Amino acid sequence: MSSVSNWALFAHIIGIVFWVGGLLAAGQMLAGIRREPSPEAHAALARLARKLLKAMAHPGAAVTVLAGITLLGANPGDLQRGWLHVKLGFVVILIAVDLFLTASVARLVRRGSEIPASRVKLTHAVVALLFLAIVFLAALKP
Q1: Which of 73, 54, 82 lies closest to 7 in space, CA to CA?
Q2: How far apart are CA 108 and CA 42, in angstroms?
Q3: Which of 9, 23, 92, 124 has the fewest Cβ atoms within 10 angstroms?
Q4: 127 backbone dihedrals φ, ψ, rounded to 5°
């Protein structure tokens, strides 16, 4: 593996950790809103969730995708591997979940719209399962 590939792999791993960590942390902020009686606490947790997405998850997603493209450029033969197609499908789903969560948080910050607890829990579970599936495929390359 070349030096560029090593750095790209390092960036790819760090990026996914920040991306998924930011999504999970933002989800925890949303889950905490229901436990807080104060409207001020609701607003503060919603703003914190938005900051986590903007400052952690979204930059992590950008680094992950850019580093992944760099890795594919360095190893174009990987595009022929079935496990990579499945992994990329999971990444597309993770992007969709990210966009959904971002839109939900924006509505919450703007209008104070409630996000059902079941949706927060489902989003959290889907992010965690996608992360585990992506890591499994990347590590084992079945």
Answers
A1: 73
A2: 9
A3: 92
A4: -60, -45
Q: Over the stretch 86-133, which tens digit does the pLDDT of each residue have?
A: 999 999 999 999 999 999 999 888 887 778 888 999 999 999 999 999
- Give 123-126's long-range contacts (Cβ < 8 A, gap of 24+): 123/27, 123/97, 124/24, 124/27, 124/28, 124/31, 126/93, 126/97
- Work out the angle between the directed axes of helices 117-140 and 3-33 (0-180°, nearest 10): 160
CA-nearest of 27, 89, 19 to 57 is 19
DSSP per-residue letters across 37-57: --HHHHHHHHHHHHHHIIIII
How many whole angstroms separate alpha carbon 55 and alpha carbon 43?
18
CA distance 127 to 134: 10
pLDDT at 55 > cutoff 90 = yes
The whole-angstrom separation of Cα 71 and Cα 128 is 24
Q: Where are the domains of the chain?
A: 3-140
Q: Tell me which residue of 78, 62, 60, 56 sits closest to 5, measured CA to CA.
A: 78
